[in-house]
Design brief:
The chain has helices at residues 3-34, 37-63, 77-106, 113-138, 142-171, 176-203, 213-220, 256-274, and strands at residues 226-236, 242-250, 278-284. With 315 residues, it is mainly α. The chain folds into two domains: 3-203, Cation efflux protein transmembrane domain (Alpha-lytic protease prodomain-like); 213-299, Alpha-Beta Plaits. Strands 1-2-3 form a three-stranded mixed β-sheet, covered by helices on one side.
Length: 315
């Protein structure tokens, strides 16, 4: 993410943070006065938004710091850690709300519907405005997307709160309040699961799902003078940067200049075909070693040994 985008995101995150502080305080007060669990649930969700936006804002600032001798990759994973934390908190809040709502279903409480409707509508307006501030950048950053999901969930829950308040006002159906809380909670859990899985995969340095390693080997094998590519390591540092490290086995004893030229061809192809932005390749010739595509893979899958060419084992 460029510096300009960081600046825009930071300002919008800060404004969304202030708006959510206002709505959180208002809904806590209103929830206590009205006795509405749905309104308090929405307030608790909004409080998680305040925390999420604050964490996202500072994580984004940290991730923009330059690499150092201590942190040679820079601090880009600060945003991924923030995304994992925020989405995990969101799931935890959802589980807690399910429990509280089930307890309230067994023992429905009177609710002052006018407070519920008024503050629910305020939540729709404030959260809707916050979504508008972050929508354009949610696709480009997992960190921003985590905050965006919090806000989107709040907007939906605020609409549900208003609907429940109207049902209580017109028909005095008090059990609808904890029922709405359960629906809110289930949505929070659902929305957080995919983000937890994606951020965890990045921190575990799993290969991106959209990139086929066998296809990489096939395309590399089309480049002249390359016999094999093996011991591939493929991972993401953050949302956008994809890294690849591998060994290249040349079919003839190239000069250093010729080998460098072939390596540059491989790098160009990997960037254009697969979006891999950072590549480190170790050139080799007549080296007697195992040619596993993935290190140790042949122990379980001996048939997945090379890029489609028969590997040489030199004596």
């Amino acid at each position: 993410m460029g510096s300009h985008l960081h600046g825009v995101s930071g300002g919008r995150l800060l404004l969304a943070f202030v708006l959510n502080v206002v709505i959180t305080v208002a809904q806590i007060i209103g929830g206590i006065i009205s006795g509405s669990l749905a309104l308090l649930s929405d307030a608790l969700h909004n409080f998680s938004d305040v925390s999420a936006l604050a964490i996202s804002y500072f994580a984004q600032k940290i991730s923009a710091k330059r690499a150092t001798r201590f942190g040679t990759f820079g601090y880009k994973r600060a945003e991924i850690i923030a995304a994992l934390f925020n989405s995990s908190v969101l799931a935890g809040i959802g589980i807690y709300l399910v429990y509280e709502s089930v307890m309230r279903l067994y023992n429905p409480q009177p609710v002052v519907s006018s407070w519920v409707i008024a503050l629910g509508m305020l939540g729709v307006v404030v959260n809707g405005g916050s979504i508008w501030l972050l929508e354009a950048e949610a696709e480009g950053s997992m960190n921003i997307r985590a905050a965006y999901l919090h806000l989107l969930g709040d907007t939906i829950t605020s609409v549900a709160v208003v609907t429940g308040g109207a049902a209580i006002y017109f028909w005095h159906i008090y059990w609808v309040d904890p029922l709405i809380s359960i629906l809110i909670a289930l949505y929070l859990i659902y929305a957080s699961v995919s983000l937890i899985r994606e951020s965890t995969a990045i921190l575990m340095e799993f290969a991106p799902k959209h990139i086929d390693i066998d296809k990489i080997a096939e395309e590399v094998g089309k480049i002249p003078d390359i016999e094999n590519i093996y011991q591939i390591h493929l991972w993401r540092l953050g949302d956008r940067e994809i890294f690849l490290q591998a060994h290249l086995d040349f079919s003839r004893n190239l000069t250093l200049q010729e080998a460098t030229r072939r390596i540059e061809e491989v790098k160009k192809m990997l960037k254009e075909h697969f979006g891999i932005t950072n590549v480190v390749l170790q050139p080799e010739y007549m080296r007697d070693d195992e040619k596993d595509l993935i290190t140790g893979e042949s122990d379980d899958k001996p048939e997945q040994f090379t890029v489609g060419k028969t590997p040489r084992k030199h004596s």
